[in-house]
Each structure stands twice: as C-alpha cells, then as structure tokens.
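Supplementary Methods. Inverse-folding protocol.

Structures were first reduced to a discrete structure-token string of length 409. This string, shown here, constituted the complete conditioning input.
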C-alpha cells in the first residue's frame, strides 16, 4: 500500500492563545487528516506563556540556573499539546500528544539554546499508524543525560523543521498570526507587502536580523536539507509564503525587506588597554560562557586605551554583565556600561551583491529622520545599524518607503 502523505503543521503561540483558537487548530488538523494525510502537529505554548514564565523566574532571581529555566519554560508546551489532543478527541478523532523526551528529540547540553542532534522516529511512526495524528511539544528536547533542554526563543519552528527532516515529510506548514512573510513587520508598517516566495538565504538573514516570524536556526536547517516551508495564517485559508531554494521572480530586487530587532542590548567595556590579545581574551571568555555576540565596534582613543562595544540578546544581558565585569578587573579596563534601549535596523536583499549605494541610501534616510547611528555592520546581503530604541519604528517606516518596498516588484 502506498505510504500516506505526511504533513508537518506547526502552530505558534498566538494560534493557540485561547480555547476558541485551540478548537480552531483542532479543526484544521482534522481537516488535513481527513484529506488522507498523516499529520504531525507541533505546538508552541499558549499566547505569551513563555514570556510570563520567564518573568516569574525573574521575580525570584536575576540569575536563574539555565537548567531550571528550561525545566520551567518547557512546561508551557506541555499544556498546549494536551489541550490540543483533547480538542481533537472532542471532534471524534484519535490523536496523542508527546513531549520532546517521549519522542526522543535528542539535543546537546546547552541549556536555553540547545541544538537538535537527532530525532528518533520510531515512537512517532508507531503512533501515526495508530492515530494518524501526533502532537509534539515544540521548543523542547532532551540531553543524553535525560535533562530537559529548550531550543532558543521561537524554537518550535526548529522542532517542526527538525521533525519534517527526520520523518521525510511531504509538506511542512508553519501557521502563524500573519498571512506569510512580509517586506517588513506588518504590525509596524501597514502597507508592508506579503511575499509569494522568498529564498532561504534572504529569509535566514531577515530572521537573524530580527524578523520574528521564523526562528533563524530553523531556516538554516530547512536550507541544508532543502525542505520548502509554507508560512501561512492559522486564521484563514489563504496561501502564504513559500520559503525555498530558488525564487525566479526575484531578479532586479535589491532590497527584499527591512527588519527591526529590539531584543539586543549594547555593552561597552571602557578603556581596555591597547595591547594585542585583549579582544581575543574578551570574546573567547564570552564564547566559553555560551554568550553569542552580534555586532562589535572598537574605538581607539588618544590615551592608548580603547572602548570595545558589542551587542548580545537581552536575555543574556545579566549573564554578560557578570562575565564582562570579571573580565574588566582581569584585563585592567576602566569599567562596563550597558544600554538596553537600543534597536537594530537592517535592510536585506541578495540583490545587494550586484548593486552599490544601498548603504549610502540607508544612512541618508536615517539622517533625514534625524536618527543617530550608534553601530554599523554589513554582510554581502545586509546592512544593519544600531539606533536608539525611541526612533526605531520611525526608521523602519522611512526605510521601507525609501526602498520602495510597498510597491509590487
Ligand atoms: P508564532 O507565535 O506563530 O510563532 P511569532 O510571534 O513568533 O508567531 O511571529 C509572528 C510575528 O512576526 C507577526 O505577528 C509579525 O508581527 C512578526 N514579524 C516580524 N517581521 C515580519 C515579517 N517580515 N513578515 C511577517 N511577520 C513578521
Ligand atoms: N514558546 C517558545 C517561545 O515563546 C517557543 C516558540 O514559541 O516557538 O519562544
Ligand atoms: Mg515564533
């Protein structure tokens, strides 16, 4: 007998934010099943549950153990999988919910941002044969020592892509609260345009630069295994955006999208003695503490000391400050300051490879809006500026307009 088609469907937090929405997801999953497919459903925690759990931990301590944070955060997804299973049962259809551990989503040991190393498929395959629908808790995995891990914020996308790869799924659909991938966050710019298609490379850059709609790591994995993703709305039947390898209609477009990232903070180690090896020491130490550093600038001062500034995700700020203060004493720097009121704005597009003048246009647009640029970084297909948080949304709107992204390409 021919194998049934396997569809992986992921529903984000806002898609299961309340009872009515959970029932809606149940209906959609059952519809897919009734079309003759097997369905593996990945769900995130209800609404803002993960944020609320983190806030709760912060009320107890400002430096929670990362193991315990994972223990805490992973509870969110366990609530949604069980409720969704009940909602599907209510429709008279079989389904079973499984945690990351029950599936066998094996990860490394890096708590709060673990990477998937392998996914067991035996249990899921067995349950699919029995029920046709298996609901898997997103965002979580298990180490070889049976410790619960989480896959970084937005990590349910990674769970879905990982399962699609491991199970050789025919389709991987990412359901969310917008109709697809837009030229920029449609909540900030009302005339942002939905893209029919986008290639992995641009999506990866947009996601890495803050387009919250997809977790960057999941795009990296989808690209590596060439798994097309369909990002679409959980509230409508409309076609969304296909993320895939090749996108023909993209020629001629220089800037594909604008992104805003408010989740980074800037840290400056002041008056670092101007000696070889100190930058290496700083970033090696941060790396060993599993702190991912994003942008870096170093200013040489006339006094023979340099200020080194860098950005990290805000969730890592307290940990980073601790490490940086320690370092500061060891290397005899003057002190450490931080600024959490910053935002990073980026323009992204593979067309930048063959077009010049994008940076100049970006800087001029920001200057016209009287927005001061604090840091700049570029890659082959993106330019990013760190600016004060207050002017960030104004900057996104101005750049979206300046690069003509509201117009059909
Ligand atoms: P989910 O809960 O489904 O995982 P997220 O909140 O993680 O959803 O991501 C969806 C949100 O991403 C949207 O509500 C939108 O505000 C935001 N977003 C940011 N940039 C973009 C973009 N370029 N295209 C679409 N959505 C975007
Ligand atoms: N619930 C997790 C988070 O908020 C995972 C996800 O939503 O993808 O980050
Ligand atoms: Mg998400």
């Amino acid at each position: 007998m021919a194998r049934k088609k396997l569809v992986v469907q992921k529903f984000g937090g806002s898609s299961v934010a309340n009872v009515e929405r959970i029932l809606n997801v149940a209906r959609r999953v059952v519809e897919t099943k009734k079309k003759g497919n097997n369905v593996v459903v990945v769900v995130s925690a209800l609404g803002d549950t993960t944020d609320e759990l983190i806030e709760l931990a912060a009320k107890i301590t400002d430096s929670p153990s990362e193991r315990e944070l994972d223990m805490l955060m992973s509870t969110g997804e366990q609530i949604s999988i069980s409720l969704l299973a009940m909602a599907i049962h209510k429709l008279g259809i079989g389904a079973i919910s499984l945690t990351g551990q029950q599936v066998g989503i094996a990860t490394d040991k890096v708590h709060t941002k673990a990477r998937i190393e392998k996914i067991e498929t035996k249990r899921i395959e067995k349950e699919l044969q029995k029920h046709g629908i298996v609901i898997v808790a997103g965002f979580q995995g298990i180490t070889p020592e049976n410790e619960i891990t989480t896959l970084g914020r937005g990590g349910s996308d990674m769970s879905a892509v990982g399962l699609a790869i491991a199970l050789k799924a025919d389709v991987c659909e990412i359901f969310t609260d917008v109709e697809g991938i837009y030229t920029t966050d449609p909540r900030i710019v009302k005339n942002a345009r939905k893209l029919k298609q986008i290639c992995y490379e641009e999506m990866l850059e947009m996601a890495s630069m803050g387009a919250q709609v997809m977790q960057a790591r999941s795009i990296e994995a989808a690209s590596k295994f060439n798994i097309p993703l369909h990002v679409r709305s959980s509230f409508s039947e409309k076609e969304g955006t296909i993320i895939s390898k090749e996108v023909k209609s993209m020629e001629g477009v220089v800037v594909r999208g604008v992104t805003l990232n408010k989740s980074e903070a800037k840290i400056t180690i002041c008056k670092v003695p101007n000696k070889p090896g100190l930058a290496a020491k700083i970033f090696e130490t941060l790396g060993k503490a599993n702190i991912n550093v994003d942008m870096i600038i170093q200013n040489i001062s006339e006094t023979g000391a340099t200020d080194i500034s860098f950005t990290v995700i805000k969730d890592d700020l307290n940990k980073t400050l601790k490490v940086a203060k320690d370092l500061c004493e060891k290397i005899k720097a003057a002190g450490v300051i931080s600024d959490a009121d910053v935002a990073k704005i980026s323009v992204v597009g593979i067309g930048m490879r063959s077009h010049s003048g994008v940076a100049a246009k970006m800087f001029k647009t920001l200057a016209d809006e009287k927005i001061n640029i604090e840091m700049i970084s570029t890659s082959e297909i993106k330019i990013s500026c760190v600016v004060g948080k207050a002017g960030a949304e104004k900057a996104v709107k101005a750049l979206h307009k300046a690069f003509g992204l509201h117009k059909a390409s």
